[in-house]
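JOB MANIFEST
job_type = single_chain_structure
chain_count = 1
residues = 331
[input]
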Amino acid sequence: MQSWWMQMTDTDTVLDLRDSPVPAPGPKQLLVRLHAASLNRGEFLLGHGLHGKAGSWKAIGGEGAGEVTAAGAEAGAFKPGDRVMGRCAGAFAEYALMEVAEAIPVPANLSWEQAAAIPLTFLVSFDMLVLQGRLKAGEWLLINGVSSGVGVASLQLAKALGAHVIGTSGSAEKLAILKLLKPLGLDVALCTRKPDFAAAALEATGQQGVNLVINTVGGTVFAESVRTLAFEGRLATVGYVDGVVSAEIDLEALHAKRLTLFGVSNKLRTKDQRAAAVPRFVAEVMPHIAAGRILPQIDQVMDFEQLPQAKARMEAGGHVGKIVLRMPVPA
């Protein structure tokens, strides 16, 4: 089979398309013939530590959708021919192994490309908004870098939960697209790449502040994000595309307003820890997706061989939502 591999050094990444053997599923795994897989910025970012030791080669891709071709002895109800989506290592390939605990049946209303854009991004958003963020209907959410894959997923999930959403982006064009996103558009759009959005966020919330901030940008906006928070507000850090990994913390605000600051990463979690939220996600979020109330925002679908171009588009920041690879048609 064909699969994409990547070598990450301290300063750069190198991609290589290889012929690799088709893997065999373990007892609690599925072998999936992938039809689509989507890109996630973190797997290409230097310093995120998601790729492993610098200089090593690794099969890449973190999520995809396809058809089960073989199932392990302890695969439960899953069987060959089932349409599944999920997080899986080495997803930029014709075949990949998916843990049974991570596999999610694909609703009939989704295309392969739509299904591939859901698992990792929406599970991260579910972690931030529901499991840790405790976002409720009527509350305010601020998303820094709202046009990213995680940003758009968080916007859609928050609106489905009945929350109000403020989003920042340096592109007025991207914000206009997200305000018109049906049926879950952005409530307040702030066009800025600078840490200067607190006043506008406070004005939008009647000076009460936002209840939850999703920081996809990094340290440059951390202090300003804290300034936007309401009493008992929460701040989630999910990335640092700005490369800034430290920031000052206003201890007076943290103390007086009883704030909660938390990180969202799977880097140090075990397989069981990563999979623990999947049943709740299936029960609480998948009905919205199956009913069409939430549909992933796909920026562009590109051919499997175009991963270098897809990566370049992501790194240039030209996308709104997810960039998806379409796998080769079987011979």
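[summary]
The chain is about 25% helix and 30% strand.
The longest strand covers residues 29-38.
exit_status = 0
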